[in-house]
UniProtKB/TrEMBL annotation:
Residue ranges, compositional bias (Low complexity): 10-21
Stretch list, region Disordered: 1-23
TM spans (from-to): 27-46
Keyword Membrane appears in the UniProt entry: yes
Keywords: Membrane, Transmembrane, Transmembrane helix
This protein's name: Uncharacterized protein
Amino acid sequence: METPSPAPRTSPSTPASRPSGGSAGKILVVFIVVTSAAIAGTIVAMRLSVRAKMNAAAASASAAASGAPSAGPPASRP
């Protein structure tokens, strides 16, 4: 009589290591998602900041070109 060996179906260490590997994988995925979201947020904030500075510079340049008074100190009148 042959006795079937249970080793090919499931190894004894696989069920024990699978839950810890699964939770570690979930933690890794969450870490990657949070890190990439933070990097993307930083990039968007930097681009908006640069755009705001460029808009402010363009507005002051167009105001100076049109002869409008600047937002600097008031001009002294004689």
